[in-house]
Amino acid sequence: MAMLEVQNLIVRYGERTVVEDVSFSLEEGRWLMLIGPNGAGKSTIVNAIAQSAPYTGRILYEGEDMRRLKPTELAKKIGILSQNHSVGYSFTVEEVVRLGRYSYAPGIFSRHSDADEESVERAVELTGIAPMLKQSVLTLSGGELQRTFLAQLLAQDPQILILDEPTNHLDLVYQKQIFALIRQWLAQSGRAVISVVHDLSLARAYGTDALLLHNGRLAMAGEGDAVFDPAVLNGVYSMDVAEWMRTMLSQWT
Amino acid sequence: MRPDLNKQREGAKAPSRHILRKSSEGFGPGAYAAFIIVMLAAMALCICVGSVTIPLKTIVSVIWRAVKGLPQIPGTSSSIILSVRIPRVLCVALSGAALSLCGAAMQGLLKNPLADGSTLGVSSGAALGACLAIALEITLPGFPFAGTMVMAMAFAFLSLVLILSLAYRLDYSLATGTIILIGVIFSMFISSVMSLVIAFAGDHLRSITYWTMGSLAGSSYLNALVLLIALVLCGSVILLHARELNAFAIGEDNARHIGVNVKRVKLTVMITVSVLIGVCVSIGGTIAFVGLVTPHMVRMITGPNHKRILPASLFGGATFLLLCDLVARVIVNPVELPIGVVTSLIGAVLFVNIFYQTRRGR
């Protein structure tokens, strides 16, 4: 059985249909890249999967309708890293990361266990934010903030990671590290990743599967390089994508 | 790729273990003891000082005799202490604690340091209810202030339902900006209705006007008991939501992502806050700025974690309002100012200062 199955997903904002009849499934150990031009519906699809956008159609997690899951159960299965983070108060990095364990002890009197501590420590190690644990999140740069929320997400320890433009605020060094880190995370059993990316080279290098979206519809879906068919890409982006990539690369040779 | 990551992991390992073990989010017993001592000192000061200054020793002996049921020694101003100052001090402390706790909760929930019961429109709604009760002479037999209280609570709750249903219609996710905007518009609407009520109030004009300025003069033990019950019940609900409020204060979307039942928590906290504000408004009138300023001051000392802000606001709010009430009573002696005037004066100045500093700090 597929880990995640999206069936006939339709998302409407008022009169406007943003996602139209999209179906796909995600198996364990796969890294699905959602690609397509701006406004293609990539972020809307991940929001629907995270149950934070109203939709019609069905989204199943291991065969179970995700609408039926309680918020804490949902958080243990699916974790999402948003594109933007705006924090209003001067919480410390540590406080933000620790909240990732909320769904494991949501009760009023429940205490944090050793497993919680370990998970938080591991997330802190992996993301390399230990030196700034006591720092206020208001003093962080965009990249540091992104790593803080990634640490919170890793502490949350979901089965499926959803990353909406994960390297948006990150310089090249951290882009490289974050993608390597996620690949390492994915190697554990029972995990899968969905990410929205604009950089087609990154999508091609790290993704095992890809969905190409165009105006809310699936233009192409498949494993490996199948989606990166020049003819289809050129149609969706209305430009010669491969030619552009080659021009960019030629600057370095 | 790998060497980079490994190097970083090795470097990060040692400090993270060390730092993480030591952290504790809430206050220890020592801090609570300090809060209680400061609050009790403020209470004692408020009982001592007034139109007649009474030595602390006399107060202790009067209270001791009253508790033990012994007859009071004549000439010790026992009636001033027992029937005027103590009930008033109790009501002031409880109102201050309740309003500050509500303010702290709303500021966390809406991720907005300017939020308060008044921003939601709940205070104005409650005030309108109480005004109507005074103007129309609505009373319940046996309970002299129950009419205003029931009306204030009912109107606070009605305001909340109205604001929330409007917000739901406009924006299903109940985004904080929507709620604050609706709250502000609602408050303006209510204040115009209130002016209308006052215009037709006739004989009750003076008592309504005085009451809208906020005053806890003439409080009784029954007032204090009602406030205490409301604070214990609603306060526990709010205190038990400290972790969820932290999540909201970081961001509503983030709260949803980590597994907080966003809608349930929002409704629970809002309803609790509106009940508590309704009770406070019916007893002390609209005492502005307490719920806005105390959590601000507290946050500067404790940081934004609600496990610390909420209890600190509780005690801090009580102490702050006690001192304001003291100023209201003694500053233009023998005339007594309504407490709301003092809190607004102190509050506005402090608020501008705090706002300026937080802006500069960014």
Key terms:
heterodimer; A: 253 residues; Rossmann fold; six-stranded mixed sheet; 9 helices; B: 362 residues; mainly alpha; ABC transporter involved in vitamin B12 uptake, BtuC; 16 helices; 77% helix
Structure description:
The complex is a heterodimer of chains A (253) and B (362). Chain A has nine helices and ten strands. Chain A is α/β, with parallel strands linked by helices and 253 residues long. In chain A, the strands form two sheets. A six-stranded mixed β-sheet of chain A has the order 6-7-8-3-9-10, with helices on both faces. The mean pLDDT of chain A is 89. Among the domains of chain B are: 116-282, ABC transporter involved in vitamin B12 uptake, BtuC (Orthogonal Bundle); 287-357, no CATH class. Chain B has helices spanning 2-22, 29-48, 56-68, 78-109, 117-120, 122-135, 146-170, 176-199, 205-213, 221-239, 242-250, 252-257, 262-284, 290-302, 306-330, 339-361. In chain B, α4 (78-109) runs antiparallel to α13 (262-284), α6 runs parallel beside α13 and α7 packs antiparallel against α13. The longest helix of chain B has 32 residues, at 78-109. Residues 1-19 of chain B have low confidence and may be disordered. The chains are: A alpha/beta (253), B mainly alpha (362). Chains A and B meet through α2, α3, α4, α5 and α6 of A and α1, α11 and α12 of B.
Topology:
The complex is a heterodimer of chains A (253) and B (362).
Chain A: E1 4-13, E2 16-26, E3 31-35, H1 42-49, E4 56-61, E5 64-65, H2 71-77, E6 78-81, H3 93-98, H4 114-127, H5 142-156, E7 160-164, H6 172-186, E8 192-196, H7 200-206, E9 209-214, E10 217-223, H8 230-237, H9 241-250
Parallel strand pairs in A: 3-8, 3-9, 6-7, 7-8
Antiparallel strand pairs in A: 1-2, 1-4, 4-5, 9-10
Chain B: H1 2-22, H2 29-48, H3 56-68, H4 78-109, H5 117-120, H6 122-135, H7 146-170, H8 176-199, H9 205-213, H10 221-239, H11 242-250, H12 252-257, H13 262-284, H14 290-302, H15 306-330, H16 339-361
